Amino acid sequence: MAGSRFLVVSVLVVGLCSALAQGLGVNWGTMASHPLPPKIVVQLLKDNGIDKVKIFDADSSTMKALAGSDIEVMVAIPNNMLRTMTDYGAARDWVKTNVTRYHFEGGVNIKYVAVGNEPFLSSYNGSFLNVTFPALKNIQNALNDAGVGGSIKATVPLNADVYNSPESNPVPSAGRFRTDISDLMTEIVQFLNQSGAPFTVNIYPFLSLYGNPNFPVEFAFFDGGSDPVVDNGIQYTNVFDANFDTLVSALKGVGLGDLPIIVGEVGWPTDGDKNAKASYAQRFYDGLLKRLVANHGTPLRPNQYIEVYLFSLIDEDAKSIEPGNFERHWGVLKYDGQPKYNMDLSGQGQAKTLVPTKDVEYLPKKWCVFDPNGGGNVSTLGDQITFACTWSDCTALGYGSTCNGLDGNGNASFAFNMYYQVQNHQELSCNFQGLATETTQDPSTAGCNFTIQIATSAADAPMKPLLVVFMMYAYVMALLLL
Predict the structure, then answer these.
(1) Within a domain: residue 118?
(2) Which of 17, 81, 293, 468 has the largest CB neighbor count within 10 A?
(3) Which positions ≥6 away from 131 have C-beta within 8 Å?
(4) pTM, whole model, 2 decimals?
(5) How far apart are CA 260 and CA 257, in angstroms?
(6) Is the pLDDT reported for residue 479 higher than 50?
(7) Which of 72, 167, 187, 265 is an active site residue?
(8) What percent of the chain has pLDDT over 90?
(9) How many domains does the chain have?
C-alpha cells in the first residue's frame, strides 16, 4: 500500500514537472514563402502541449485545421480592414464569416478577436487612430448580437509605446498613456472594462536593447546581474517587469488599475543582429518560463500568473525587415518546425527541446552556388547578389548574424541559394547570367546553414496575394537577367 502511494505521488510529481506553464500560448504567423501546412502546425502545437494560439487573421485553412483541436484561439482583423469594420454591417458580416461559422461543438475554440495589431505605433503616423476604437466597439457588439459575446471578447493588441514614463521621472510608478493618444486610450480601456475584455500589450525586451546602444544587456534578462531600477523602494531587476508595471500605473491613472492584462507578444529573435542569437533567446525564455510557472507576477501585481503568448512559433522569411533584419527570425522553431535550442515549456529549466514537426516534405537536396568558372561576367556579381537578396531572405549575412563570417564567394552562394529555394528549384532560377550552378554537395558551414526549402506551399497553404506577386515578378526578372 505504501508502495502504491509512492507510485501515485511520483506520477503526480512527474506530471506537474512536465506540465506547461500556466497561461502560456504562442503566436502563429504565416508570412513565409513556404508556410508549413496548417494541419502539421496544429499537430505540432498538440505534441508540445500548447493549448493557446494567437493568429493574425482568420484564414479558412488555418481555422479548419484548428477545428476539433480544443486549442484556444485568438483570431484577428488586420489593420488594413479596420476602416471597413467601422461600418457595423461589415463588422457583423465579419463575425458571421470568421467567428460564428466555427462556433459549434467540435469547431474552433475562439476566445478572443484581436482588432488590429499595434495600430497606434508611432511609425504609422496616426493612420489608424480614428478607426480602431469604432472597429473595436462594432466587433464586440456584433459578437454580443450573435450570442457569443459572453465567451468571446474583442481586444486590441497594442505595442508598449502607447504608454511611457516622463523623462523627468523614468520609473514604472510614473507610467501614463502617451500624451497624443491619452483620451483615446482612456476610452478604449473603459470599453474593455465594460465588455469584460483584457488589455493586450506586446512587450519586447530585445527591442529595448536593439534600439538603445546604452541599454544594459543584463537588464533584458531575468537572471540578475544588472543594477536595479529603484522606484519608491521597489527594485526592478529586469525590463519586462518594469515595462509591465508602467502599464499597470497607466491603467491606475485612468481608474482601472485592476484591468486584466494579456501579454500578446513577447520573445527573442535568433538571427539578424549581434544580440539576436540562440543563446540569448534560450536564456530569455528560460528566465521567463520559470517566472510564469512560479506565478511570480510583477512588483505591482505580485503572486499572479500572467497570460503570455510567445512570439513566435516559427520563423517567417517573408516578413518586412523595415524594423530590422531580425524580424524574420523570431521563431522558437526554424522555418521547417525544427527546434533551435533547448526550451522547457514547463518552466523547470530542464535540458530538453520542443517536439519537432513530423511528416514535413522537403525539396530535393540540391543547392545553387556561385560558379566563378561558369563563363559569366564576374563584374555583374554584385548586381546578381542584390537581385537574389531582394527577392529572398539574406538577413543571415548581416553584421553579427550567423552567416556574417562567409567570404565573398560564400556570400554569393548563400544569396543565390536562398533565391533558388524560394523559387522551388525552378530551372532558370540558378543561372544569374552564368555565375551560378546547381550542386548536390551541401555548402553549409559549421555556423551557417544553406537552406533546403520545404515543399508544401503550393499544395497545402495558399500563398498570400503579395507573395504570389513576389514570386511572379521574381521569375520574370530572372528571365530578363539570363
Answers:
(1) yes
(2) 293
(3) 82, 83, 85, 86
(4) 0.91
(5) 9
(6) no
(7) 265
(8) 89
(9) 2
Active site residue 118: yes
The answer as to whether 389 is a domain residue is yes
What residues make up the domain containing 255? 18-329
Residues 206-261: tens digit of each pLDDT = 999 999 999 999 999 999 788 999 999 999 999 999 999 999 999 999 999 999 99
Question: How many CA atoms are closer than 13 Å to the CA of 290, on its beta-carbon side?
Answer: 12
Beta strands in 131-225 (DSSP E): 153-155, 157-159, 163-164, 176-177, 199-202
Helix (H, G, I), strand (E, B) or coil at 77: strand
Q: Which of 299, 329, 359 is the last residue of a domain?
A: 329
User: What is the per-residue pLDDT across 428-448, written as a single tens digit (0 to 9) for each?
Assistant: 999 999 999 999 999 999 999
* Pair 232, 173: CB distance under 8 Å: yes
Please tell me the number of Cα atoms within 13 Å of 39 on its side-chain side. 6
Catalytic residue, candidates 118, 307, 316, 438: 118
Residue 378 within a domain: yes
> Residues 6 or more apart from 87 whose CB is under 8 A from it?
138
The answer to whether the beta carbons of residues 370 and 416 sit under 8 Å apart is: yes
Is the Cβ–Cβ distance between 47 and 471 less than 8 Å?
Answer: no
Q: What residue has cell string 506577386?
A: 469
Return the CATH number at 236. Answer: 3.20.20.80
